[in-house]
Amino acid sequence: MKKMKILGICGSPRNGNSEFALKFLLKDIRGKNIEKKIVLLRTLKINFKESMLAKKVIHGYLKDDVDKIFDKMKQADIIALSCPTYFDMPPALMKIFIDRCSPFYYKPVLKGKKAILLVCGGAKVGEGYIEANMKNLIEFCKMIKLNIIAKIVFSADSKNEASKNSKLKSQLKSLAKKLSK
Predict the structure, then answer these.
(1) Which of 50, 64, 80, 122 is the most exposed place for a label (fewest CB within 10 A)?
(2) With a cut of 50, which residues of the chain have pLDDT below it?
(3) Domain residues for 95?
(4) What are phi and psi of 23, to 5 degrees?
């Protein structure tokens, strides 16, 4: 039986609520034939895209860690993206990563892979700020042809707040159960 490969990518510049949610989800996904990996963008070297040439080249144009992430993305069956909300958008670290993914728009090698989106912010859910960030991630997934299977938005203003959010943990456990084999 083929292993289901799940790649979690956290775009937070710190070890906070976004990282907690992603790790909590991945920890709860269980099964013999499941392989899980996590990428913390804050721990990697990710350069700005310097020219229009970089948008069409998947490997080797900029000397940084993005090629390793791209390889993991191409191998994954499910890609889970998690990030906080800064001014209704992903933080700069995640935005740079999104911009670097432009080769997947020109060469849709991720087409049909599944995506999970986890977005948090300091505002209350329903006020529109966190949802605006989620909309950005949804559009990103559409552009690179990922099929979104789950979206979770949650409020977390202070460090470790997500770890105390029983509704969030329940949503993550429910999603993990659906993905477990």
Answers:
(1) 50
(2) none
(3) 4-179
(4) -65, -40
Tokens of 177: 């159960």
First to last CA, the chain: 11
- The CATH number of residue 104's host domain is 3.40.50.360
Q: Give every CB contact of residue 19 below 8 A, 6+ residues apart in sequence.
A: 10, 12, 40, 82
- Cβ neighbors of 3 (< 8 A, separation 6 or more) are 33, 34, 35
Beta bridge partners of 80: 8, 116
Helix/strand/coil percentages in the chain, nearest 5: 40, 20, 35
Burial 137-173 (b: 16+ CB within 10 A, else e): bbebbeebebeeebebbbbbeeeebbeebeebbebbe
pLDDT in tens, 74-85: 999 999 999 999
- Cβ(7)–Cβ(152) under 8 Å? no
Among residues 86, 85, 76, 53, which one has the least CA distance to residue 147? 76
Count of the separate structural domains present in the chain? 1
Structure confidence by residue, pLDDT tens digits, 49-79: 655 555 555 555 667 899 899 999 999 999 9
Q: Report pTM.
A: 0.94
Question: For residues 25 and 80, is the Cβ–Cβ distance under 8 A?
Answer: yes
CB half-sphere exposure, 136, CA atoms < 13 A: 22
